[in-house]
Specification:
Low-confidence stretches: none
Radius of gyration: 17 Å
Helix content: 55-70%
Strand order of the largest sheet: 1-2
Number of strands: 2
Mean pLDDT: 90
Order of helices and strands: HHHHHHEHEH
Largest sheet: 2 strands, antiparallel
Structural class: mainly alpha
Number of helices: 8
Length: about 160
């Protein structure tokens, strides 16, 4: 990636593809900068940029071939020994707010960044996790639904 802005745009595009949430929704969490920094810290800038470039290739390949983005994503990224574990961790990161340690085999083969292990990215990453809007719930202990809302049965909005 040539600039930090390009890397952020690529990261948001990849994240939208991986999570099925729009870039607008992802930006709305306020976590994009922290999450990108966590990915770079955990796997290094080179591995991050390889993943973002592969995603750009998937998008352009899907457009040129009339193929499904999901199919190319599975074939070229998720099944790739180097890129797949990073992409799966990014999905978990957006949904749960925690970066999980890369598998030992991966770190031996491809190295790691400055940060190792499993860690919670920020104080608000749990609250802003995509798991909550995905299941139509509020994070326990945060973002309460309001006084008296317990009196009405929950509603599930069809997608």
């Amino acid at each position: 990636m040539s600039t930090d802005a390009d890397r952020m745009e690529g990261f948001l595009s990849l994240s939208a593809t991986l999570t099925a949430f729009s870039e607008f929704d992802l930006r709305g969490t306020g976590q994009a900068e922290d999450y990108l920094a966590a990915v770079v810290a955990a796997v290094g800038a080179d591995n991050t940029d390889r993943l973002l470039s592969a995603h750009a290739s998937v998008l352009s390949g899907a457009a040129a071939q009339g193929a499904s983005v999901e199919g190319l994503l599975r074939a070229q990224i998720l099944s790739n020994d180097r890129l797949g574990p990073i992409a799966r961790n990014i999905m978990k990161l957006w949904y749960i707010g925690t970066w999980y340690a890369m598998p030992q085999e991966w770190t031996q083969a491809f190295g790691v960044g400055a940060v190792r292990g499993t860690f919670v990215v920020s104080a608000s990453s749990y609250i802003e996790g995509l798991v909550w809007p995905a299941i139509g719930a509020n994070p326990p202990g945060a973002k309460g639904p309001g006084y008296g809302t317990w009196a009405d049965p929950p509603t599930i909005v069809a997608p």
